[in-house]
Amino acid sequence: MDSKENEMMTRVGPSTPAGETLRRYWLPVSFSHEINADAPRLVRWLGEDLVLFRDEGGRVGLMEPNCPHRGTSLEYGWIEAGGLRCCYHGWVFDVGGRCIEQPGEPAGSAFKNKIKLKAYPVTEVGGVVFAYMGPGKAPPFPRYDFLAREDGERTFAGYLRECNFLNQLDNCLDPVHATILHGREVNGTRENPERQESPEFEVLSDDLFASYVARRPGPIPGKEWHREVSYTPPILVIHDGGSLPGDPAAHFADVAWRMPVDDYNTYSFILKFFPFREGKSTIARKRNVPRPPPLMRGTRRQFDMTTVNGQDAAAQIGQGAIADRTAEHLGYSDRGVIQVRKLWMSAIDAVIRGDDPPGILRDLKSNELIHFDVIGSGRLVDKDQMLDHLPRVMRI
Q1: Which of 237, 369, 374, 378 has the maximal Cβ count within 10 Å?
Q2: Quick one: which of 309, 333, 332, 334 has its CA closest to 323?
Q3: What is the rounded end-to-end Cα distance, in angstroms, of the chain?
Q4: Between β-strands 265-275 and 253-262, what pairing exists: parallel, antiparallel or unpaired?
Q5: Which of 368, 366, 242, 258 is nearest to 28 (CA)?
Q6: Which of 222, 221, 231, 242 is nearest to 175 (CA)?
Q7: Can you give the three-state secondary structure of 50-97, one letter per residue?
Q8: Exposed (0-12), middle (13-18) or buried (19+): which is 331, by Cβ within 10 Å?
Q9: Where in the chain is the domain with CATH 2.102.10.10?
């Protein structure tokens, strides 16, 4: 990859190729429980500083953070009068960015009708707030089943990592790193020792999906350990698609969005959906396992190498804030990484041409669900079963 391509794929600010492509999608900007109903919050997404708030009616707003009157930050305002009131002179803005009240102006003045902040459409589904930050009318929101289903429970987690989002996406279809980087003590125990040898894996891709399916011999004849991870543009990584609605197996879904804060920072939104089984919760309780000291220290900073997250952080941040892909030497084991980049570049190329990027579904029905048929990781399965399985997107 040359430096021009690396820049094109990684820079996320307004008017950049990657930034404009990201803005064509609905993107996560907050978990619902993180929005305080009493106070606004300053956030930063795709290199833009914004203010996020929930009005008295429960609606969520995402808009420019400075009052257009005298420039004071609206993060110091308060929720009142149908919107967000500036702390300085009391101007009020609704979730659409319209000025709806101006104390100090003459009664009957129409001045407020001329004032509007840039505001982005938002939708709140399954405990996650999504925004459309692109031009024109927003496309239909894809109702992923793990967001829209009501027959289960969700867990939420998130973390900030000080590197470009592509450093993380490169990692998602890299099964060899799972053996080498994560083949060490995690939370005081060695995870799945029977799977520590390098796996055989296939890479599958089309215009919507890039996936790998890795296999390792199992302890039972005719069985094998299976790991499958998929990527779909722009930033969604599916570790497990979960079971279909009504499936008595009630297997959980495990997904992550690698959301760019800016060129040098990424926030991961992690959601797991656990369907009920016979009306009961399927969330397993975590065990409190004593953790040993960190296994690795650097001269610049220390990472908690007793966790998968810490191990990934060390490797990805260690590549540099934006990895220098011009200096790489990719081999046969990197074919999943190559497919992720090809799929992401195809999305950028589509937007440059003036087309919709992959994954924008204009004909979605209001009650339609999107299901990712991705079997996921850590299962002992029949070899023949895996030969018949291909990751796919289902509209149900």
Answers
A1: 374
A2: 334
A3: 39
A4: antiparallel
A5: 258
A6: 231
A7: EEEEECCCCCEEEECCECCCCCCEHHHCEEECCEEECCCCCCEECCCC
A8: exposed
A9: 26-132
- Report how far residue 143's alpha carbon sits from residue 109's, in angstroms, rounded to the nearest whole number: 43
Rounded CA-CA distance 294/301 in Å is 12
Return d(Cα 92, Cα 112) in angstroms, integer: 9
Q: What is the pLDDT of residues 313-372, one digit of tens each?
A: 999 999 999 999 999 999 998 999 999 999 999 999 999 999 999 999 999 998 899 998
Which residues are bridge partners to 158 per DSSP? 269
Please tell me whether residue 1 adopts helix, strand or coil conformation: coil
Q: In Å, how far from its chain's centre is CA 36?
A: 21
**Secondary structure, 3-state, 151-204:** CEEEEEEEEEECCCHHHHHHHHCCHHHHHHCCCCEECCEECCHHHCCCCEEEEE
Where in the chain do CATH 3.90.380 domains reside?
A: 145-395
H/E run at residue 302:
none
As to burial, measured by CB atoms within 10 angstroms (0-12 exposed, 13-18 middle, 19+ buried), residue 113 is exposed
Q: Could you give the CA distance from residue 72 to residue 144 in angstroms, rounded to a whole number?
A: 38
Q: What is the CA radius of gyration of the chain?
A: 23
Which distant-in-sequence residues (6+ apart) come within 8 Å of 93 by Cβ?
Answer: 61, 63, 67, 74, 83, 84, 86, 99, 100, 117
* 377 within 8 A of 240, measured Cβ to Cβ: yes
Using the CB atoms, write b or e for 11-25: b if 16+ within 10 Å: bbeeebbbbbbbbbb
Q: Which CATH number fits domain 26-132: 3.40.50.10300, 2.102.10.10, 2.60.40.1120, 3.40.50.300?
A: 2.102.10.10
Segment 206-248, tens digit of pLDDT: 888 898 887 777 777 777 777 789 999 999 999 999 999 888 8
Q: Are strands 265-275 and 26-31 parallel, antiparallel or unpaired?
A: unpaired
Question: What is the amino acid identity at position 207?
Answer: D
CATH of domain 145-395: 3.90.380
